[in-house]
Amino acid sequence: SYELTQPPSVSVSPGQTASITCSGDELGDKFASWFQQRLGQSPVLVIYQDTKRPSGIPERFSGSNSGNTATLTISGTQAMDEADYYCQAWDSSTYVFGTGTKVTVL
Amino acid sequence: QVQLQESGPGLVKPSQTLSLTCSVSGGSISSGSSYWSWIRQPARKGLEWIGHIYSSGSTNYNPSLKSRVTISLDTSKNQFSLKLSSVTAADTAVYYCARRRDYGDGDAFDIWGQGTMVTVSS
Q: Got the DSSP string for B16-77?
């Protein structure tokens, strides 16, 4: 079965840039989405189709996808960005989620 | 603005069937370009897609759960439902309903319910 691997944790200082990677076989040939999940809340879509931001998502969230890696970048990270982040892609009629990354804003 | 709300028992006995309903408000469940999905998350773990149903009634399930899952649609009530049979403790999780929106050249789970905790225990 298809797997998406993320680093367990990423730490970032306020105002700095956080980058979260998502690795999967030929992931660049698929569309990747990213979700933010704050503690005790439902996931929220922050990036879809690799680079698109839904309405209401701040411009500091951006995405890219090439080769075997998709990346979510948070520029000018704020305390409110502290959360778990999950990537997601589709493979063989199955929707697969990444292992998740906890972003800590120190 | 479409909103989703899960409902159902919070406790299910082992070997029994878990049944949940998702109520859709602010839009019709019969609208095209929307796939109505179930996703679950065990405590302190990641997300797992269970399956979805389209407005036509066609379904697609995660192969790892396919033998135990049924997702159905009730257009008169603007709801869709999940049934998971022969549950074990491994099925204990927060269950989310979500809309997968088809943009034509791609799709995304753009709207999620608040989630409902289901515990499997005797």
A: S-EEEEEEEESS-TT-TTEEEEEEEE-TTS--EEEEEEETTS-EEE-TTTGGGEEEEEETTT
